[in-house]
Amino acid sequence: MADILGNGKYDILNEIIERIHKDCVRMDEEEKKYLVSKFTKVLENFIEKMRDCDSTFNQIFCEIGYTGSFYDGVRVGEATEFDLNLILKPKLKMLPDKKQCDRGFVKIKIIDAADCVKPINDWIVGGFLNPANMKKWLEGVITKTLNKISNTLDDCQLKFVKSGPAMTLKVTFNSPPRKEISIDLVPVIEFPGTMWPPIPQKPKKLLNQGHGQPWFAVPKEDTAWRMSFHLQERYILKDLKYLKYTLRLLKKVRDELQILKVASYYIKTLFLWEVERNRDYRAVWSATGRGRLFMHMLVRFREALRERRIPFFWEREMNLIGHLKEAYIQNSCDRLNNFIKQIDKYVDDKNAYELEVYICKVLNQNTPASCV
């Protein structure tokens, strides 16, 4: 791997991937600014309507947590999908518990529920906070709120769609541009950084300003909660000049090669591990050529598929792609391997023209006029 980062032959890629990044990866700034301001206003007003509709939500809702690709700065394409946490703080004394939990998950043990009232006491089953019961309650609050406002707010039509742990709010603008925005609303329980779950801590230097930040429990199964450390991850990847740039390019490759079951978070995890394993990571991501970094991470991605393993950054025994079928991973690996081998062929031939034509074709990007 070090051979790629130190190999100047890949510098031929620098200008090519810069043009691709500019034309088909980077978002339009003006459109992004408009869409974000529009959806933020709708969301804030909708949260206030939820507060008005339900006294329990008004009592325990703390704030919105802005998560996901857009707020991490690695979104590819239009700014029409957003991931948001609804941070809830019920008046309960709670502790994270790893007993009888799969890797990457915790249970929430209730230590004291003396001040607990309905509907919160319905969430407690066998001494633990039940994620399914809490989600069901919140779904009811959202549905009740939408009915009360007749699915209309701030000149927008609103629709509620359930998908996994997220509850998706579809927002359609009634006035031009008539865009539809998807907002995944995920209820989470916040734990302070001083109440770390029973897993190994990462070094303070690596965590940067993320040390001591809170972490979150996300409802995932009937009894267990997925551990989420998006604040810590954001600080780990902060101020690394070409890291997010390279991450966006890898997501574009993933999309166009139809390796869609490898979620964006799994790609991000490859970069988290890369930062941790390299002692001079700031120099690597700030001073190394973009073409070398691009090829380096493509090969890391291929390695992960060949090994059929992307360890969860916070509990490495958990395999993020362990649920994918072997045949799917093998087919995905073959497509990625062919892409890498063809790039290497044109690089070795020093054929910048064919190299750019090939990459543009695979990434569904118009070939620049200079190459036609």
Automatic annotation (TrEMBL):
Question: Where in this chain does the record put each Mab-21-like HhH/H2TH-like domain?
Answer: 244-336
- InterPro entries, sorted: Mab-21-like_nuc_Trfase (IPR046903), Mab-21_HhH/H2TH-like (IPR046906), MAB21L/cGLR (IPR024810)
Tell me the domain of life. Answer: Eukaryota
Query: Which keywords belong to this entry?
Result: ATP-binding, GTP-binding, Magnesium, Manganese, Metal-binding, Nucleotide-binding, Nucleotidyltransferase, Transferase
* GO MF: ATP binding; GTP binding; metal ion binding; nucleotidyltransferase activity
> Which Pfam families does the UniProt record give?
Mab-21, Mab-21_C
The coenzyme or cofactor needed here is: Mn(2+); Mg(2+)
Specify the Mab-21-like nucleotidyltransferase domain's residue ranges.
70-238
Q: Which family does it belong to?
A: Belongs to the mab-21 family.
Name-wise, this protein is Uncharacterized protein
Q: Which organism is it from?
A: Homalodisca liturata
Which lineage is the organism of this entry classified under, starting from the top rank?
Eukaryota, Metazoa, Ecdysozoa, Arthropoda, Hexapoda
